[in-house]
Specification:
heterodimer; A: 174 residues; alpha/beta; Cytidine Deaminase, domain 2; six-stranded mixed beta sheet; three-stranded parallel beta sheet; 5 helices; 12 strands; 29% helix; B: 90 residues; alpha+beta; Ubiquitin-like (UB roll); two-stranded antiparallel ribbon; 2 helices; 8 strands
Chain lengths: 174, 90
């Protein structure tokens, strides 16, 4: 069992998935995915600490995939068409601020263009290192095609299986 | 020249739970070597034979060292080296 995951299961229980997303935050997330197409969009969903399952605000982030690809195409072979990368220092500060303000980041979001809303091998290899989950989050993937939004799936890490599994995501109006 | 190194939660098992470590070094490479001597196993998590691992980011103060001089990036007293796991994917 991952030590981080065990600790985070109680301190950051949203890593266990089964979350409730406010419709306005969903719409903001979907709008970002649509406007970013055919590049991948990315960002975070946060919500009140005292309601661990609740997600009520979307925080868009800049996809820096193309910047890294231009710098080092060997190590970063993909462009924003099939890859996303968030400035990790800024992200770390957002995580810290969210914790301090009682509005922790609970979900890392990204979109897929012209593909399904699966959790890719690249995602899994990035977010779990040595059997340890790297960020205390669940993961939302939206897929977008030429006709618009296609699929929406929430994923969470399952340490007993060493893989990410799909998890329920309820859309709420209140 | 003491440099402050910020350690992310998933790597604190290697630093005895510490979220910050102070080490000597005039470059990122020297700081990593100093970290490794105090906390064996850190270097392997950060670097491979090609340099900084793709799934790890090292920030010298505000900038990813990939956009500076990579492992040769100079550091001076008072600087901070922040280790952050990648936030990326396909």
């Amino acid at each position: 069992m991952s030590e981080n995951f065990r600790a985070w299961s109680s301190s950051h229980p949203w890593v266990l998935g089964d979350l409730r997303l406010h419709r306005a935050a969903l719409q903001a997330t979907e709008a970002r995915a649509l406007e970013s197409y055919p590049s991948e969009a990315c960002g975070f969903l946060c919500g009140p600490r005292e309601e661990p399952r609740r997600l009520e605000r979307f925080i868009p982030e800049v996809n820096e995939a193309d910047k890294y690809h231009a710098l080092d195409p060997e190590r970063f072979p993909r462009t924003s068409r099939t890859y996303f990368k968030i400035n990790e220092l800024r992200a770390q500060r957002l995580f810290d601020e969210g914790e301090a303000q009682g509005q922790p980041i609970k979900v890392i979001f990204h979109s897929h263009c012209d593909s399904s809303a699966h959790f890719s091998a690249e995602d899994a290899a990035t977010f779990v290192q040595g059997g340890e989950l790297m960020w205390p989050c669940a993961f939302l993937v939206l897929s977008v095609g030429p006709e618009g939004l296609e699929e929406r799936r929430l994923w969470r890490y399952e340490p007993s299986e060493g893989r990410f599994v799909e998890s329920p995501l309820e859309i709420v109006d209140e | 020249m003491p440099i402050t190194v910020r350690i992310p939660t998933p790597m604190r098992s290697l630093t005895g739970g510490k979220d910050e470590v102070s080490v000597q070094g005039g470059s990122v490479a020297e700081v990593i070597d100093a970290l490794e001597s105090q906390h064996p196993g850190v270097k392997e998590r950060l670097c491979d034979e090609q340099g900084v691992r793709r799934y790890v980011n090292l920030y010298a103060n505000e900038e990813d060292i990939r956009f500076l001089d990579n492992l040769a990036t100079p550091l001076k007293e008072g600087d901070t080296l922040t280790i952050v796991p990648a936030l990326a994917g396909g």
